[in-house]
Amino acid sequence: MRFRLTPRETSFYDMFAASADNIVTGSKLLMELLGADSSGRAEIAERMRAAEHAGDDATHAIFHQLNSSFITPFDREDIYKLASSLDDIMDFMEEAVDLVVLYQVEELPKGVEQQIEVLARAAELTAEAMPHLRTMDNLTEYWIEVNRLENQADQIHRKLLATLFNGKYDAIEVLKLKQIVDVLEEAADAFEHVANTVETIAVKES
C-alpha cells in the first residue's frame, strides 16, 4: 500500500459498496423473473426499474463526490470507470427484464436460467469485494473468479445462440430472444469490466 501524507476522501468506499449491493438486488429480481407469469413479470419489471433508478442515483453521487473532492482514494479515472461499469451492469439487467415484458415472451429458452445464475454469482462476488477496496486485501480471488464466470457466460451464450438458430423458433421470435440473451451477455461482460478495473486499481496501489 502506497504511503500517503494527505487524508483521503473515504466516502467513496461506502458508495461503491451501496452500488454493488443494489446490483445484488437486481440479480435477485432476474431470478424471480424466471418463475413468474406475465402479470408477475410486469411487477418485477417495475421493481427492477426502481432498482435501476437507485443505481443511477448511486452513480451520480459518486460522480458528484469525485468532482468535489480534492484528494481521492485512488486515481480519478479509475473511480469514474468503476462507477460507470457498475452502473452498466444494472442498466443491462433492467433492459433484459424490460425486453421480456415488452416482447411478451411466453417462455425463455433453456439456458437463460444458467445465464442468470452466473450473473447472480458475479453480483454476490462483486458486493463482497467492494468493502476490500479500503485495504486492497483479498481481492485476487475475486477478479480471477469473475473472469472465469465471464468465460462460462460466453459458453452459455454461444449455446443459446445455437438453440435459437436450430429452426425451432420462427424468425420474429429469434429476433426477440436473441436481443434478450445478448443483453444478459453484456451484463456478464460488464461484471468483468468491474473486476478488471479493481485489478488495475489494486496493482496501482500495491
How would you describe the overall organization of this protein?
This is DUF47 domain-containing protein. InterPro entries: PhoU-like_sf, Put_Phosphate_transp_reg, UPF0111_domain. Belongs to the UPF0111 family. With 206 residues, this protein is mainly α. It is built from six helices and no strands. The protein has helices spanning 11-34, 38-68, 76-102, 112-129, 140-164, 171-205. The chain is globular, with a radius of gyration of 18 Å. The N and C termini lie close together (5 Å). The model is unreliable at 1-7 (pLDDT under 50).
Total number of helices? 6
H-E string: HHHHHH
Mean pLDDT over the full residue set: 93
As a whole number of angstroms, the C-alpha radius of gyration is 18 Å
What portion of the residues fall into strands of 2 or more residues?
under 5%
Shape label? globular
- Catalogue the unreliable spans: 1-7
Organism: Streptomyces maoxianensis
Protein name: DUF47 domain-containing protein
Pfam families: PhoU_div
Family: Belongs to the UPF0111 family.
